[in-house]
Specification:
Blueprint lengths: L3 H18 L3 H22 L4 H5 L5 H18 L10 H11 L20 E3 L14 E4 L8 E4 L1 E3 L9 H14 L3 E2 L7 H4 L5 E5 L15 H8 L4 E7 L11 E2 L6 H7 L7 E2 L10 H14 L5 E5 L4 H14 L5 E5 L10 H6 L4 H14 L7 E5 L5 H9 L4 E4 L1 H6 L22 H4 L4 H25 L13 E3 L24 H9 L10 H7 L10
Parallel strand pairs: 4-13, 5-6, 6-7, 7-10, 10-11, 11-12, 12-13
Antiparallel strand pairs: 1-14, 2-3, 8-9
Length: 542
């Protein structure tokens, strides 16, 4: 029975050629159909790569056919509005509707399980207020910054030219210029498409130092200073890690590297572009803090900070100790959740490495508070930010502003086909194929980018007013209620200013704080602790 279809199609090929030679015209049609299938079956029997094809010639190809269209069948015919990942239908529809200025209300109540662990909700007021404007901004720039920047509450997160197309970059930046918000370049440096419409840029620098690298891949201060001096560059962001692949570095497949990308990044063509997992410019917390201060000096005093997905707790705390010891601080820190983003990565990294945004953001905020240095540093948050409620959640956990990547990808036409790494993106967003890019029309899509930003902040402002508040800074942790999951979660701990130096510091924070060292990212061992007397209760706050 396994060979029944192959036998039948082979017999049909022989019979049809016989009938065709006898003068029956329709037999030629049957021959034209049956013969290629019979030859395919013979090939299946002879090949040695796929055992399924050897055992079920011809008909086994149906497996690959259905596997190929499975995502589309599931997305359009099977999944409900609220049960898909990374983004469900309701979330994607919200972006599309706001980007296109369409009706965005939903009938008949929520589809979320409001009694499920992890569900979050905000308390509202019996005395709501009406907000006249929703163009909220936060000033970024500490005492060492001479060119502070007033950043929007919602901005475009890092997506490199190369990872996404030229048309997508151009549409995003023109939308940012129209809406008055910032566009993070991603680690792929600043291309001509970033500059074409003059939208505010956050220049991201990662371990590959694209745009400011020497021929051997090291940091080049002169190139950095020249680019950072551009008035379009408003802030500089040093990427330590990202949620999509923490600890992995960046990878741009050779198939997506064009001469333009090669020139922009300063890399050769013909092979994968791999950013190192670790920065060669520094290797200790002290060296990192000094490098950030040097970047600020070289940039002419623009805001300089770093982005990370939280991993080992003591490592971030070591950076905080190094800041205190040096008496210098980054102007901002962007916390990226392990929820992932636009970067393709190995499954082990995507699914099992890094701290989710809620826990990571709360930890960073509380550590800065507990160390007594929160007032020096602004915090940005990125990780599945789609709606005004997502912004409010991030702010309640300690963020000052939010960044979104995939939300803005949806705004320019992304359909979550999840083919970003194949160079065959069906909507022209994440591809370098010019024939596919032409499907993304900048003149239309930039308006959707600006619309999505404006309407999302309007939704946030309405939500803020319903809580009886008139400024985002008034959102407090007590405003957000999350149904308990793990009773030992770090979300349950809140620190007072300077509490990391006190006896009553919760062990969830005190233990990693004691392990943190300014001279290495490795944890202090028991001997180090005994010799240095490094205990939170005995340390004195500088």
């Amino acid at each position: 029975m396994r060979f029944a279809f192959f036998a039948a199609i082979t017999a049909a090929a022989f019979i049809s050629i016989g009938l065709a030679l006898s003068g029956l015209v329709w037999a030629w049609i049957a021959f034209a159909v049956a013969t290629p299938l019979a030859l395919l079956g013979i090939r299946d029997l002879l090949q040695s790569r796929h055992s399924l094809l050897r055992n079920y010639p011809v008909i086994a190809h149906m497996r690959w056919l259905f596997e190929g269209i499975r995502p589309e069948i599931r997305q359009y015919l099977i999944e409900s509005d609220a049960d898909a990942y990374p983004f469900n239908r309701e979330q994607r529809s919200l972006v599309y509707q706001r980007a296109k200025q369409e009706q965005e209300t939903v009938p008949f109540g929520t589809q979320l399980d409001v009694y499920k662990a992890g569900y979050g909700y905000f308390t509202h007021s019996l005395a709501p207020v009406h907000l006249e404007q929703h163009n909220f901004r936060r000033r970024v720039g500490g005492p060492d910054c001479v060119q502070p920047y007033d950043i929007s509450l919602l901005n475009i997160s890092g997506m490199s030219f190369g990872a996404i197309s030229a048309n997508a970059i151009e549409a995003l930046n023109r939308g940012a210029a129209t809406g008055g918000f910032a566009h993070d370049t991603g680690e792929g440096s600043i291309s001509s498409y970033h500059r074409r419409h003059g939208g505010d840029l956050i220049w991201q620098i990662a371990s590959g130092y694209f745009g400011c690298r020497t021929d051997d891949g090291m940091f080049d201060p002169e190139k950095f200073s020249a680019t950072a001096a551009d008035p379009q560059v408003k802030m500089v962001e040093l990427k330590l890690s990202q949620g999509a692949k923490p600890g992995h570095g960046g990878v741009l497949p050779a198939s997506k590297i064009t001469p333009e990308i090669s020139e922009t990044r300063g890399i050769p063509m013909g092979r994968d572009c791999v950013s190192p997992s670790a920065h060669p410019a520094f290797s200790t917390p002290n060296e990192l803090v000094a490098f950030l201060a040097e970047l600020r000096r070289l940039s002419g005093g623009k805001p300089v900070g770093f982005k990370l997905c939280v991993g080992h707790l003591h490592e971030f705390m070591a950076i905080c100790k190094a800041m205190i010891a040096a008496g210098t601080y980054p102007d901002f820190i962007v916390v990226d959740g392990k929820e992932g983003g636009t970067g393709a990565a190995p499954v082990e990294f995507t699914d099992h490495l890094g701290m989710p945004l809620r826990e990571g953001l709360h930890f960073v905020h509380m550590t800065l508070v507990g160390a007594g240095i929160r007032e020096h540093i602004r915090i940005g948050a990125s990780g599945k930010i789609i709606s005004g409620a997502d912004i409010a959640t991030a702010l309640s956990l300690g963020a000052d502003w939010c960044n979104a990547a995939r939300g803005f990808m949806f705004a320019v036409g992304c359909i979550q086909a999840r083919s970003c790494h194949t160079n065959r993106c069906p909507t022209g967003v994440a591809t370098q194929d010019p024939t596919r890019q032409r499907g993304l029309v900048v003149e239309d899509k930039y308006k959707r980018v600006a619309n999505f930003h404006r309407n999302t902040l309007r939704g946030f402002a309405e939500m803020l007013g319903a809580m009886g508040l008139d400024d985002p800074s008034q959102i407090r942790p007590e405003t957000l209620h999350i149904r308990a999951t793990d009773p030992d979660s770090i979300l349950h701990h809140r620190l007072k200013p300077g509490q990391l130096f006190e006896e009553d510091c919760p062990s969830a924070f005190a233990a990693p704080w004691n392990l943190a060292r300014v001279d290495t990212f490795r944890p202090a061992d028991a001997m180090d602790l005994r010799n240095s007397g490094a205990h939170a209760a005995t340390e004195k706050q500088p």
